[in-house]
User: Fold DUF2383 domain-containing protein from Fulvivirga imtechensis AK7.
Amino acid sequence: MSSEKKAIKDVLDICHDGIKGYEQAAKDIHNEEFRTIFNRLAQQRKLFIEELKNDMRDRGAELEDTGTIKGYFHRNWLDLKAKFSEKEDTVIIDEARTGEKEALEVYEKAINSDVPRYIKDRLEQQKRLIAGAIEQLNEFEREVTAHHGSSI
Assistant:
């Protein structure tokens, strides 16, 4: 696999992990507003995947998103942790933020790899949206914490 394909495959996989993670978070979180936003973020990651797959198809490459083993275990750990935590919503938000920070690292590697400029531009745009999601998660945590760490 070329370095370009590997870089984009890594991004597709981390986005796949993000979809699954946000879908799980939406099921587990108590706050309805957060649930709606988590579902929207899962949809956004699906769009990211489709955009990148289309870009790669235009270059003659078919790539699949399968997720990562690490992402699979991360979701299972989140599910288990949420079941036993008194502060479920803060745990869920923190785990989502952890996943997004990992996504930023994968995106940074892809941006610095040997991909065409127009794909770098797409990756940078998606990376900015992920950074925005992290800010939103930080705001959620502040909101939950302001309510004494309980579910809103």
Remarks:
- The mean pLDDT is 84.
- The chain has one domain: 3-146.
